[in-house]
Amino acid sequence: MKTYLNRKTLAFQAAFIAGTLTGPGSAFAAGNNFSDIARNINASIEELPGLISGVSYMLGLLLGVLGIVKLKDHVENPTQTPIKDGAIRLAAGGALFGLPIVMESMLNTIGTTGTIIEAPTLSRAEFNVR
Q1: How far apart are CA 73 and CA 65, in angstroms?
Q2: Which of 19, 36, 92, 96 has its CB 3.0 to 4.6 Å from that of 30, i.e. a possible disulfide?
Q3: What gap in Å lies between CA 19 and CA 25, rounded to an integer?
Q4: pTM score
Q5: C-alpha to C-alpha distances, 20 to 17, 23, 24, 27, nearest whole angstrom
């Protein structure tokens, strides 16, 4: 029974990979020259800074809350929980909160855009789950 399931699993995996590589789709419809590949890569990573900003804000908030909880644990039982645990989490949370602004400043310093430095904003989040 085990070998039968292993063969069925391998057959399913092979069919999935073959279907993914040969199936119709816009991801594989581009030409084979370097400029088309570079254009596709550029279009794919266009929204990456917004994703990094959103993730860093969420992780910064999470680490800030965890740092406050660790400081509370230290106040309740100083011998069991050192204060450095809470301080490290608070510092890391603050650094993650400041990351989008620092990233925008670095991009403007390099000269990719000529706009004034602004903190990135999150206008909406879409989860296209069906």
Answers
A1: 12
A2: 36
A3: 11
A4: 0.54
A5: 5, 5, 8, 10
Q: Is the pLDDT of residue 24 over 60?
A: no
- Sequence-ordered list of residues with C-beta below 8 angstroms from that of 121, at least 6 positions apart, any chain: none
Residues in the chain: 130
DSSP secondary structure of 45-64: TTTHHHHHHHHHHHHHHHHH
Which residues, in sequence order, are CB contacts of 122 under 8 Å at separation 6+? 50, 53, 54, 57
What's the whole-number mean pLDDT along residues 42-46? Answer: 78
pLDDT tens figures, 55-93: 999 999 999 999 999 999 999 999 999 999 999 999 999
H helices within 77-128, ranges in order? 83-110
Alpha-carbon distances, residue 111 vs 30, 44, 115 (angstroms)? 31, 22, 9
The answer, yes or no, to whether residue 130 has pLDDT greater than 70, is: no
Q: What distance in Å separates the CA atoms of residue 119 and residue 55, rounded to the nearest whole number?
A: 15
In the predicted model, what is the mean pLDDT of residues 116-122?
64
